[in-house]
TrEMBL record:
It is a multi-pass membrane protein. The keyword Transmembrane applies. InterPro entries: Bax_inhibitor_1-related. This is Inhibitor of apoptosis-promoting Bax1. Belongs to the BI1 family. One of its GO terms (cellular component) is plasma membrane. It is found in: Membrane. The keyword Membrane applies. It comes from Romboutsia hominis. Keywords: Membrane, Transmembrane, Transmembrane helix.
Amino acid sequence: MHKEITNPMADIFKYLAISILFMFIGFAFGQAFIPISVVQVANLILPFLIIGLLIMAILSKKSIIPRSFSMNYVYLFTFIDGILLYPLLSFYLQSLGTSIVINALLGTCILFGILAFISYRKKAGHYLGIGSILFAGLISLLLLCIINIFIGSQTLNILYSVLGILIFSGYILYDISLIKYDIESGNIISKNDLSIHVLNLYLDFVNILLDLLNLIYEFKD
């Protein structure tokens, strides 16, 4: 194995943590340089941001994005994503309060950790069989989000968030299982081979966080 990769699974979680950090750096950058007036239209930005994240998830899950590329591109993407998320996260911070947003973030971390541990304890490739079901769910989420732009139904919004949490939770099981399978199959030999896996896990994490915040917001109202 390439000297860069001594413990692929540990490295993936390390790079994932760095990616999430870059997202928050992007958020801080947005706070410093994006006018507060942008925050006031967060409700208008939300559907298009969610659609963008879903399309990105679809592209990555279907390997339309190359499977091996520099980790720097992942960091660049997550930094830009943090900037784009600034109005939405600011909206939630103002509407829900800092403590609730932090608790949602901690809850997402705990859920992610539990699901990753469950998948890691299983045999490599154990959850790969649910991939087609999850992908169909991902397409359904995209369509539901587009439909709700025109309908504006609170019920559909809640349904979307619940399904989103379930589907991306399933994808954590799937992605960790795939990573373990790729490691045991010898498909990960350099740092760049980890990039698509880190990107997938980042998208799982962020989508669950946004769905959880949206769910809390809907029930708070």
